[in-house]
Design goal:
This protein is mainly α and 214 residues long. The protein is built from nine helices and two strands, in the order H-H-E-E-H-H-H-H-H-H-H.
Length: 214
């Protein structure tokens, strides 16, 4: 795994985990949080494990959510709590967790549908094209294994969340037009896919635009 890829994945994992810790602390101190008075981390990990054993249906919708699905769906709200003092995104994800714990994943599925027009977080075609062309997929199983271990170590609450986009490039047969070893914060050439006009959707769901609080 290149040092650039490792640094990128490490930063992402640490950001998600630190924001989740802040979310849990906020719930402990905020009576309006749907998980107030509970061990938020324990509730979350128990829910993920339960849904990975048996996906939980979203009532009224023809879809069921696994533990992986709720991780991907929850990340944007965990990272970006929304405007103070209400922090509506943290309020929403807390309600969705409590609802899923009671056997209904609709709190996640409805928000995903409203935002992404899909019952689950989609893999955006434009993103896949540019990521694969820029060499952001895994170079082989060994890199995947190391990335998986890194995520499990740095972000136990959201381990595996960052693996799905690189895995989407498995089988990509064309050589990278922008080798990662050459890519820097400035001066990195755009991929040929971008030069040909392939872009991500103009209305970008929060899954592609999340930012941590300063």
């Amino acid at each position: 795994m290149s040092s650039w890829a490792t640094t990128r994945r490490r930063h992402r994992a640490e950001t998600i985990e630190s924001q989740f810790a802040r979310f849990a602390a906020w719930c402990r101190s905020t009576a309006s949080c749907a998980l107030h008075g509970r061990d938020v981390g324990g509730v979350w990990r128990g829910l993920v494990a339960a849904e990975d054993r048996s996906a939980i249906p979203a009532k009224g919708l023809r879809v069921a959510y696994s533990g992986f699905d709720i991780k991907v769906a929850a990340v944007p709200d965990v990272i970006s709590p929304g405007a103070a003092p209400d922090l509506p995104n943290w309020q929403r994800v807390a309600r969705a967790i409590a609802q899923a714990e009671a056997g209904d994943a609709a709190g996640f599925a409805v928000h995903v549908r409203e935002t992404a027009k899909s019952l689950k977080v989609p893999s955006f075609r434009g993103m896949n094209v540019t990521h694969c062309a820029d060499g952001l997929g895994f170079t082989g199983y060994e890199e995947y294994r190391k990335a998986k271990e890194l995520g499990e170590r740095l972000s136990p609450n959201f381990a595996g969340n960052e693996l799905w986009h690189p895995l989407g490039c498995v089988g990509w047969r064309h050589p990278s037009r922008t080798p990662r070893a050459r890519c820097r914060r400035t001066g990195c050439r755009p991929s040929r896919a971008r030069e040909r006009g392939a872009t991500t959707p103009t209305s970008r769901p929060s899954w592609t635009a999340s930012r941590a609080r300063p």
